[in-house]
Design brief:
Layout lengths: L55 H8 L26 H9 L13 H14 L3 E5 L2 H10 L7 E5 L4 H13 L3 E5 L4 H9 L5 E5 L11 H10 L3 E5 L17 E5 L13 E5 L1 H14 L5 H12 L1 H19 L5 E5 L9 H7 L8 E6 L2 H11 L4 E2 L9 E3 L11 H6 L6 E5 L5 H14 L14
Parallel strand pairs: 2-3, 2-4, 4-5, 5-6, 10-11
Antiparallel strand pairs: 1-7, 6-7, 8-9, 9-12, 11-12
Helix pairs in contact: 3-9, 4-5, 4-8, 6-7, 10-14, 12-14
C-alpha cells in the first residue's frame, strides 16, 4: 500500500460483456472467476487505484465542488454560499475580476444571490440598476461617498436618523465635506441653504426618523437639480411599496433592507437604486470598502420582498388604527402619523404615498417629558423595547435616549424632537392587543387614559 491511498471508479455490474442480458454461456455472472480479478473490483495484488490519474483527496475535493447543471429555473433564488468562483481560463478571470457584470470571481466583488437582491430592488424602485450592501448605513455611506469629494457641500435634514447625521457631519466632515442642515419641509429654507454656496448633494429622508415629517421629493429634487446638485433619498421609513422617490426626481434611493424588506428582524442589509452610471460608482465604493452582503442575508431579504406588500398593508392598517386611538387619549399631546389628516405634511402624503397606505411608523408625544416617555416604554408588555423598525413585532424607542442620543438637548429641539417623544414601529399583531398594551402603559406611567384597559391575558 502506498502512503497515499487511492481509489478508482467503481464500474457498474454487468451480466455479460456489453450486455445487461443473462450470459448465454449459462455460467453465473454474479460469481467472479477465481482465476482472475473481477473487472468490477480492485486487483488485490496492487495498491488501490495505483494507476488512477488523481488521488482520493483530489478527486473528493473536485467531486464535492461540482454543482449539478439545472435547466429549470428555481422558484427561489439559490444561496451561492461561496467566496470564490472558478474561471475557464485566465482571460475570463481577468474579465470578471475587472467587471462584475461579466461574471463572478470573488464574492466581495459580486455574488449571484446579492446581485439578485440589487436587481430586484432596482425593479421595484424604478431604477436602471441596483446594488445590495452589508447594512443600511453601508448603503448610505456608499451612496454619499460615490458622489462626494473633499471640499464638496451637502444640504441635509435637521430631522434625520442620528447615525446618518453623525456620518455626514463627523465622518464626511473629517474629510473636508461641508454639511449644512436644514428643515427639509421648508422649501424656502432648503432653497436658501442650497444656494448659499455651490452644493454637490442634497440628502433627505422620505419620512424623517423619528418625527415622520415627510419630504416633498418633487419639490426638493427640483430645487437641487436647478442648482446642479444631486438628490439622494433614504426611503427606509416608507419602503418602496409606499413611496418611489426615483419616480419623483431623486437620483439615488437608499433603504435599510434590514427593516421592511426583510421584515422579520433576522438579517442586516442595505440597498441602493438609481441610474446605471451612478450605481457603477456606488459599486466602486462597496468593493473598495468591503461593505459586502453575505449571500444568506441576501436570500432572506429576497424572501422578505416576496411578502412586502401584504405585510406593509397590515403594518399600515394597524398603525392607522393605533395612531387614531392614541390621538384620543388624555396625556398624549401630539400624534405624528402620515396617514392622519392632522399630520403636518398630509397633503404631501396624499400626492406621493400609495393611496390609503400611510406606512407602519408613528411617533407620539406625552405630557411629562423624558421621564414619562421612558416610564411608558418600561410598562409595555406586548410591545418590544427595540431600537429598530419594520419588523413583524411592534417596537418602541425613546429617540432622545437611543437613535438620537448623539444630539444635545438644543439639537433635539431644533430637530423637532421633544423630550416626551416616542417612536413606534407598528407590527403585525392584533391591533386590539396593541391598544390594550399602550392603555395599560399610559395608565401605569401616570399619563392618564380615558378608560382603564382590560387586564392582559396570556
Amino acid at each position: 500500500m502506498t502512503s497515499r491511498e487511492r481509489s478508482g471508479p467503481i464500474e457498474p455490474h454487468r451480466s455479460g460483456p456489453g450486455s445487461s442480458l443473462p450470459d448465454p454461456s449459462g455460467s453465473d455472472p454474479s460469481r467472479p472467476d477465481p482465476s482472475r480479478p473481477s473487472p468490477s473490483r480492485p486487483d488485490p495484488s496492487r495498491p488501490i487505484g495505483e494507476s488512477d490519474a488523481l488521488g482520493f483527496s483530489t478527486r473528493a475535493i473536485r467531486a464535492a465542488s461540482h454543482a449539478p447543471e439545472v435547466n429549470q429555473r428555481p422558484s427561489s433564488v439559490p444561496i451561492y454560499q461561496t467566496a470564490t468562483f472558478a474561471s475557464l481560463d485566465t482571460a475570463e478571470l481577468a474579465l470578471v475580476a475587472a467587471d462584475p457584470r461579466a461574471g463572478y470571481a470573488y464574492s466581495r466583488l459580486a455574488n449571484p444571490t446579492t446581485t439578485a437582491l440589487g436587481d430586484a430592488y432596482a425593479e421595484l424602485a424604478d431604477g436602471e440598476a441596483g446594488i445590495a450592501l452589508g447594512s443600511g448605513m453601508a448603503a448610505i455611506h456608499a451612496a454619499c461617498a460615490s458622489v462626494l469629494r473633499a471640499g464638496d457641500r451637502v444640504v441635509a435634514p435637521l430631522a434625520a436618523y442620528g447615525s446618518t447625521r453623525s456620518q455626514l457631519t463627523t465622518y464626511f466632515g473629517r474629510f473636508g465635506v461641508e454639511i449644512r442642515l436644514a428643515d427639509m419641509t421648508d422649501h424656502v429654507e432648503v432653497d436658501a441653504a442650497i444656494n448659499e454656496a455651490p452644493t454637490r448633494l442634497v440628502y433627505a429622508e422620505t419620512s424623517a426618523n423619528p418625527t415622520t415629517f415627510v419630504t416633498d421629493h418633487a419639490a426638493v429634487a427640483e430645487l437641487a437639480h436647478r442648482a446642479g446638485a444631486l438628490y439622494i433619498v433614504d426611503n427606509t421609513f416608507a419602503s418602496t411599496y409606499v413611496c418611489r422617490p426615483l419616480a419623483l426626481g431623486a437620483d439615488l434611493v437608499v433603504e435599510s433592507a434590514t427593516k421592511y424588506i426583510g421584515g422579520h428582524s433576522d438579517l442586516m442589509a442595505g440597498v441602493v437604486a438609481g441610474s446605471a452610471r451612478l450605481i457603477a460608482e456606488v459599486r466602486r465604493v462597496q468593493v473598495d470598502t468591503g461593505a459586502t452582503l453575505a449571500p444568506i442575508e441576501a436570500f432572506l431579504a429576497l424572501r422578505g420582498m416576496l411578502t412586502l406588500a401584504v405585510r406593509v398593508d397590515r403594518h399600515s392598517a394597524n398603525a392607522a388604527t393605533l395612531a387614531a386611538w392614541l390621538a384620543r387619549q388624555a396625556g398624549v399631546e401630539r400624534v405624528l402619523y402620515p396617514g392622519l389628516p392632522s399630520h403636518p405634511q398630509h397633503d404631501v402624503v396624499l400626492r406621493q404615498f400609495r393611496p390609503g397606505v400611510g406606512g407602519g411608523m408613528l411617533a407620539f408625544e406625552v405630557a411629562g417629558g423624558r421621564a414619562a416617555g421612558r416610564a411608558i416604554i418600561d410598562a409595555l408588555a406586548v410591545t418590544e423595547r427595540t431600537a429598530s423598525l419594520g419588523s413583524v413585532h411592534t417596537m418602541v424607542v425613546h429617540p432622545p435616549s437611543t437613535s438620537q442620543r448623539q444630539l444635545s438637548e438644543e439639537q433635539l429641539i431644533e430637530s423637532g424632537i421633544r423630550p416626551g417623544l416616542l417612536r413606534v414601529s407598528v407590527g403585525l399583531e392584533d391591533v386590539e392587543d396593541l391598544k390594550a398594551d399602550f392603555a395599560r402603559a399610559l395608565t401605569a406611567a401616570g399619563v392618564g387614559v380615558g378608560a382603564v384597559a382590560p387586564a392582559l391575558t396570556t
